[in-house]
Amino acid sequence: MPVKSYLEVLDMNLKTMVKARNPILYAAAEHLFSAGGKRLRPTLVFLVAQATMKSNKILNSHKRLAEITEIIHTASLVHDDVLDDCTTRRGVNSVHSTFNTKVAVLAGDFLFAQSSWYLANLENLEAVKIISKVIIDFAEGEIQQNLTQFDLTISTSDYIEKSFYKTASLIAASCKATAVISNTSKNMQNNFYSYGKHLGLAFQIIDDILDIVGSSKSLGKPAGSDLRNGNLTAPILFALEEQPELQLIIEREFYKEGDIVKAIELVRKSQGIQKAQDLAQEHLQAAINSLKFLPNSDTYTSLLKITEYILFQII
Protein backbone atom coordinates (compact mmCIF):
# COMPACT_ATOMS: atom_id res chain seq x y z
CA MET A 1 0.00 0.00 0.00
CA PRO A 2 1.58 3.34 -1.03
CA VAL A 3 2.19 6.05 1.58
CA LYS A 4 -0.35 8.33 -0.15
CA SER A 5 -3.14 5.88 0.74
CA TYR A 6 -2.06 5.83 4.40
CA LEU A 7 -2.05 9.64 4.44
CA GLU A 8 -5.62 9.76 3.08
CA VAL A 9 -6.77 7.50 5.91
CA LEU A 10 -4.77 9.62 8.38
CA ASP A 11 -6.58 12.79 7.25
CA MET A 12 -9.94 11.16 7.93
CA ASN A 13 -8.80 9.77 11.28
CA LEU A 14 -7.43 13.09 12.54
CA LYS A 15 -10.87 14.68 12.36
CA THR A 16 -12.51 11.81 14.23
CA MET A 17 -9.74 11.59 16.84
CA VAL A 18 -10.08 15.18 18.04
CA LYS A 19 -13.61 14.85 19.32
CA ALA A 20 -14.16 17.14 22.27
CA ARG A 21 -17.20 17.55 24.47
CA ASN A 22 -17.01 21.25 23.83
CA PRO A 23 -18.00 22.03 20.20
CA ILE A 24 -15.82 25.17 20.15
CA LEU A 25 -12.70 23.13 20.98
CA TYR A 26 -13.60 20.60 18.30
CA ALA A 27 -14.24 23.35 15.74
CA ALA A 28 -10.89 24.99 16.59
CA ALA A 29 -8.97 21.72 16.21
CA GLU A 30 -10.78 20.65 13.05
CA HIS A 31 -10.21 24.11 11.55
CA LEU A 32 -6.46 23.47 11.24
CA PHE A 33 -6.70 19.81 10.23
CA SER A 34 -9.11 20.76 7.43
CA ALA A 35 -6.54 23.27 6.16
CA GLY A 36 -4.20 20.37 5.42
CA GLY A 37 -0.48 21.05 5.66
CA LYS A 38 2.52 19.18 4.30
CA ARG A 39 2.01 16.08 6.50
CA LEU A 40 5.80 15.67 6.52
CA ARG A 41 5.96 13.98 9.93
CA PRO A 42 3.37 11.24 9.26
CA THR A 43 4.93 10.63 5.84
CA LEU A 44 8.29 10.00 7.53
CA VAL A 45 6.68 7.66 10.06
CA PHE A 46 5.15 5.58 7.24
CA LEU A 47 8.40 5.51 5.23
CA VAL A 48 10.57 4.57 8.22
CA ALA A 49 8.02 1.89 9.13
CA GLN A 50 8.26 0.44 5.61
CA ALA A 51 12.06 0.61 5.73
CA THR A 52 12.22 -1.28 9.04
CA MET A 53 9.53 -3.95 8.59
CA LYS A 54 9.63 -7.10 6.49
CA SER A 55 7.49 -6.88 3.34
CA ASN A 56 7.01 -3.14 4.03
CA LYS A 57 4.30 -4.02 6.54
CA ILE A 58 2.99 -1.06 8.56
CA LEU A 59 1.61 -1.89 12.02
CA ASN A 60 -1.47 -0.29 13.56
CA SER A 61 0.84 1.25 16.20
CA HIS A 62 2.85 2.89 13.39
CA LYS A 63 -0.37 4.38 11.99
CA ARG A 64 -1.36 5.67 15.41
CA LEU A 65 2.13 7.16 15.93
CA ALA A 66 1.78 9.00 12.60
CA GLU A 67 -1.50 10.51 13.84
CA ILE A 68 0.04 11.44 17.20
CA THR A 69 2.95 13.27 15.55
CA GLU A 70 0.58 15.37 13.44
CA ILE A 71 -1.61 16.20 16.46
CA ILE A 72 1.46 17.29 18.48
CA HIS A 73 2.73 19.37 15.54
CA THR A 74 -0.67 21.03 15.09
CA ALA A 75 -0.93 21.79 18.82
CA SER A 76 2.44 23.54 18.66
CA LEU A 77 1.29 25.63 15.67
CA VAL A 78 -1.83 26.81 17.53
CA HIS A 79 0.30 28.00 20.47
CA ASP A 80 2.96 29.44 18.12
CA ASP A 81 0.38 31.57 16.36
CA VAL A 82 -0.85 32.99 19.67
CA LEU A 83 2.68 33.86 20.81
CA ASP A 84 3.61 35.39 17.43
CA ASP A 85 0.17 36.94 16.86
CA CYS A 86 0.09 35.31 13.43
CA THR A 87 -3.26 35.91 11.70
CA THR A 88 -3.07 33.14 9.09
CA ARG A 89 -1.76 29.58 9.01
CA ARG A 90 -1.79 27.10 6.09
CA GLY A 91 -3.61 29.76 4.08
CA VAL A 92 -6.57 30.05 6.46
CA ASN A 93 -7.22 32.28 9.46
CA SER A 94 -5.32 31.10 12.55
CA VAL A 95 -7.33 29.63 15.41
CA HIS A 96 -6.97 32.64 17.71
CA SER A 97 -8.03 35.08 14.99
CA THR A 98 -11.01 32.89 14.01
CA PHE A 99 -12.14 32.31 17.59
CA ASN A 100 -10.13 34.11 20.28
CA THR A 101 -6.88 33.74 22.21
CA LYS A 102 -8.42 31.80 25.10
CA VAL A 103 -9.96 29.25 22.74
CA ALA A 104 -6.66 28.91 20.86
CA VAL A 105 -4.67 28.27 24.07
CA LEU A 106 -7.26 25.75 25.25
CA ALA A 107 -7.38 24.09 21.84
CA GLY A 108 -3.58 23.70 21.85
CA ASP A 109 -3.68 22.28 25.38
CA PHE A 110 -6.51 19.94 24.36
CA LEU A 111 -4.52 18.64 21.38
CA PHE A 112 -1.40 18.06 23.52
CA ALA A 113 -3.55 16.20 26.06
CA GLN A 114 -5.23 14.16 23.32
CA SER A 115 -1.84 13.19 21.86
CA SER A 116 -0.60 12.14 25.32
CA TRP A 117 -3.63 9.88 25.77
CA TYR A 118 -3.08 8.15 22.40
CA LEU A 119 0.66 7.95 23.09
CA ALA A 120 0.10 6.16 26.41
CA ASN A 121 -2.17 3.70 24.62
CA LEU A 122 0.61 2.69 22.25
CA GLU A 123 1.81 0.56 25.19
CA ASN A 124 5.42 0.98 24.15
CA LEU A 125 7.27 2.69 27.00
CA GLU A 126 10.39 3.48 24.94
CA ALA A 127 8.35 5.20 22.22
CA VAL A 128 6.40 7.12 24.88
CA LYS A 129 9.65 8.40 26.43
CA ILE A 130 11.02 9.50 23.06
CA ILE A 131 7.91 11.42 21.98
CA SER A 132 7.15 12.88 25.44
CA LYS A 133 10.54 14.62 25.44
CA VAL A 134 9.44 16.55 22.34
CA ILE A 135 6.76 18.47 24.25
CA ILE A 136 9.44 19.61 26.74
CA ASP A 137 11.63 20.66 23.79
CA PHE A 138 8.78 22.72 22.29
CA ALA A 139 8.47 24.70 25.51
CA GLU A 140 12.25 25.17 25.68
CA GLY A 141 12.31 26.41 22.08
CA GLU A 142 9.48 28.88 22.65
CA ILE A 143 11.13 30.25 25.80
CA GLN A 144 14.46 30.67 23.98
CA GLN A 145 12.77 32.39 21.05
CA ASN A 146 10.83 34.82 23.22
CA LEU A 147 13.85 35.68 25.40
CA THR A 148 16.05 36.43 22.38
CA GLN A 149 13.74 38.59 20.25
CA PHE A 150 15.72 41.43 18.61
CA ASP A 151 18.85 40.11 20.38
CA LEU A 152 21.77 40.87 18.08
CA THR A 153 24.20 38.86 20.24
CA ILE A 154 22.74 35.44 19.38
CA SER A 155 25.03 33.13 17.41
CA THR A 156 24.35 30.66 14.60
CA SER A 157 24.78 27.82 17.11
CA ASP A 158 22.11 29.44 19.37
CA TYR A 159 19.82 29.58 16.34
CA ILE A 160 20.48 25.89 15.50
CA GLU A 161 19.77 24.87 19.10
CA LYS A 162 16.45 26.76 19.09
CA SER A 163 15.59 25.26 15.67
CA PHE A 164 16.22 21.79 17.07
CA TYR A 165 13.83 22.38 19.97
CA LYS A 166 11.11 23.98 17.85
CA THR A 167 11.21 21.77 14.72
CA ALA A 168 13.86 19.06 14.46
CA SER A 169 13.12 17.40 17.81
CA LEU A 170 9.69 16.11 16.74
CA ILE A 171 10.91 14.95 13.33
CA ALA A 172 13.92 13.14 14.85
CA ALA A 173 11.81 11.59 17.62
CA SER A 174 9.12 10.48 15.14
CA CYS A 175 11.70 8.63 13.03
CA LYS A 176 13.34 7.00 16.06
CA ALA A 177 10.06 6.02 17.75
CA THR A 178 8.93 4.37 14.49
CA ALA A 179 12.12 2.29 14.43
CA VAL A 180 11.55 1.40 18.11
CA ILE A 181 8.03 0.15 17.36
CA SER A 182 9.53 -1.92 14.54
CA ASN A 183 11.84 -3.48 17.16
CA THR A 184 15.05 -2.61 15.29
CA SER A 185 18.58 -2.41 16.69
CA LYS A 186 19.69 0.58 18.78
CA ASN A 187 22.13 1.50 16.02
CA MET A 188 19.37 1.65 13.43
CA GLN A 189 17.15 3.68 15.78
CA ASN A 190 19.96 6.20 16.28
CA ASN A 191 20.62 6.44 12.53
CA PHE A 192 16.98 7.26 11.89
CA TYR A 193 17.09 9.81 14.73
CA SER A 194 20.11 11.45 13.06
CA TYR A 195 18.30 11.46 9.70
CA GLY A 196 15.25 13.13 11.25
CA LYS A 197 17.31 15.63 13.24
CA HIS A 198 19.30 16.92 10.25
CA LEU A 199 16.25 16.83 7.97
CA GLY A 200 14.33 18.87 10.57
CA LEU A 201 17.10 21.46 10.92
CA ALA A 202 17.31 21.86 7.14
CA PHE A 203 13.52 22.14 6.98
CA GLN A 204 13.55 24.98 9.53
CA ILE A 205 16.40 26.83 7.80
CA ILE A 206 14.57 26.63 4.45
CA ASP A 207 11.36 27.79 6.14
CA ASP A 208 13.28 30.78 7.53
CA ILE A 209 14.65 31.59 4.07
CA LEU A 210 11.11 31.46 2.67
CA ASP A 211 10.03 33.96 5.32
CA ILE A 212 12.33 36.42 3.55
CA VAL A 213 11.95 35.42 -0.12
CA GLY A 214 8.48 33.85 -0.26
CA SER A 215 5.08 35.39 -0.84
CA SER A 216 2.26 35.37 1.71
CA LYS A 217 0.31 33.05 -0.62
CA SER A 218 3.09 30.46 -0.88
CA LEU A 219 3.86 30.62 2.85
CA GLY A 220 0.27 30.40 4.09
CA LYS A 221 1.18 33.22 6.52
CA PRO A 222 2.39 36.82 6.09
CA ALA A 223 5.89 37.13 4.55
CA GLY A 224 8.48 38.56 6.94
CA SER A 225 6.40 37.61 9.98
CA ASP A 226 9.36 36.01 11.81
CA LEU A 227 11.54 39.05 11.18
CA ARG A 228 8.75 41.41 12.28
CA ASN A 229 8.58 39.52 15.59
CA GLY A 230 12.32 39.93 16.13
CA ASN A 231 13.17 36.26 15.48
CA LEU A 232 16.69 36.45 14.05
CA THR A 233 17.00 33.46 11.73
CA ALA A 234 19.91 32.10 9.65
CA PRO A 235 19.59 34.41 6.61
CA ILE A 236 19.30 37.44 8.90
CA LEU A 237 22.25 36.42 11.09
CA PHE A 238 24.44 35.93 8.01
CA ALA A 239 23.22 39.22 6.45
CA LEU A 240 24.10 41.11 9.65
CA GLU A 241 27.77 40.25 9.05
CA GLU A 242 27.84 42.50 5.96
CA GLN A 243 24.94 44.94 6.37
CA PRO A 244 25.51 47.46 9.25
CA GLU A 245 22.28 49.28 8.34
CA LEU A 246 20.31 46.10 9.03
CA GLN A 247 21.68 46.10 12.58
CA LEU A 248 20.41 49.66 13.16
CA ILE A 249 16.92 48.79 11.87
CA ILE A 250 16.69 45.71 14.12
CA GLU A 251 18.02 47.66 17.13
CA ARG A 252 15.12 50.11 16.82
CA GLU A 253 12.71 47.13 16.45
CA PHE A 254 11.29 48.34 13.11
CA TYR A 255 10.00 51.49 14.76
CA LYS A 256 10.06 53.60 11.57
CA GLU A 257 7.58 53.12 8.76
CA GLY A 258 9.06 51.01 5.97
CA ASP A 259 11.67 49.40 8.25
CA ILE A 260 10.46 45.85 7.54
CA VAL A 261 10.52 46.35 3.77
CA LYS A 262 14.01 47.88 4.01
CA ALA A 263 15.27 45.06 6.25
CA ILE A 264 14.02 42.37 3.83
CA GLU A 265 15.65 44.26 0.95
CA LEU A 266 18.99 44.36 2.81
CA VAL A 267 18.87 40.63 3.56
CA ARG A 268 18.07 39.86 -0.09
CA LYS A 269 20.98 42.05 -1.27
CA SER A 270 23.43 40.25 1.02
CA GLN A 271 24.93 36.77 0.90
CA GLY A 272 22.65 35.83 3.83
CA ILE A 273 20.19 33.76 1.81
CA GLN A 274 22.91 31.87 -0.06
CA LYS A 275 24.83 31.15 3.17
CA ALA A 276 21.65 29.95 4.87
CA GLN A 277 20.92 27.72 1.87
CA ASP A 278 24.45 26.29 2.11
CA LEU A 279 23.85 25.56 5.80
CA ALA A 280 20.61 23.77 4.95
CA GLN A 281 22.41 21.69 2.31
CA GLU A 282 25.04 20.66 4.89
CA HIS A 283 22.27 19.30 7.13
CA LEU A 284 20.53 17.59 4.21
CA GLN A 285 23.82 15.88 3.31
CA ALA A 286 24.19 14.74 6.94
CA ALA A 287 20.63 13.36 6.76
CA ILE A 288 21.48 11.43 3.58
CA ASN A 289 24.69 10.09 5.18
CA SER A 290 22.61 8.76 8.11
CA LEU A 291 20.76 6.45 5.69
CA LYS A 292 23.84 4.78 4.20
CA PHE A 293 23.11 1.61 6.17
CA LEU A 294 19.85 1.04 4.24
CA PRO A 295 19.76 -1.21 1.15
CA ASN A 296 18.52 0.23 -2.14
CA SER A 297 14.72 0.13 -2.31
CA ASP A 298 11.75 2.29 -3.26
CA THR A 299 11.44 3.34 0.39
CA TYR A 300 15.11 4.34 0.59
CA THR A 301 14.67 6.38 -2.61
CA SER A 302 11.59 8.09 -1.13
CA LEU A 303 13.52 9.04 2.04
CA LEU A 304 16.21 10.59 -0.17
CA LYS A 305 13.61 12.41 -2.28
CA ILE A 306 12.26 14.12 0.82
CA THR A 307 15.65 15.83 1.23
CA GLU A 308 15.38 17.05 -2.39
CA TYR A 309 11.81 18.20 -1.86
CA ILE A 310 12.85 20.33 1.14
CA LEU A 311 15.65 22.03 -0.77
CA PHE A 312 13.64 22.58 -3.96
CA GLN A 313 11.10 24.72 -2.10
CA ILE A 314 13.40 27.68 -2.64
CA ILE A 315 15.15 26.79 -5.91
From TrEMBL:
<protein>
    <submittedName>
        <fullName>Prenyl transferase</fullName>
    </submittedName>
</protein>
<dbReference type="GO" id="GO:0004659">
    <property type="term" value="F:prenyltransferase activity"/>
</dbReference>
<dbReference type="Pfam" id="PF00348">
    <property type="entry name" value="polyprenyl_synt"/>
</dbReference>
<dbReference type="InterPro" id="IPR000092">
    <property type="entry name" value="Polyprenyl_synt"/>
</dbReference>
<keyword id="KW-0414">Isoprene biosynthesis</keyword>
<dbReference type="GO" id="GO:0046872">
    <property type="term" value="F:metal ion binding"/>
</dbReference>
<keyword id="KW-0808">Transferase</keyword>
<keyword id="KW-0934">Plastid</keyword>
<dbReference type="GO" id="GO:0008299">
    <property type="term" value="P:isoprenoid biosynthetic process"/>
</dbReference>
<comment type="similarity">
    <text>Belongs to the FPP/GGPP synthase family.</text>
</comment>
<dbReference type="InterPro" id="IPR008949">
    <property type="entry name" value="Isoprenoid_synthase_dom_sf"/>
</dbReference>
<dbReference type="InterPro" id="IPR033749">
    <property type="entry name" value="Polyprenyl_synt_CS"/>
</dbReference>
<keyword id="KW-0479">Metal-binding</keyword>
<dbReference type="GO" id="GO:1901663">
    <property type="term" value="P:quinone biosynthetic process"/>
</dbReference>
<keyword id="KW-0460">Magnesium</keyword>
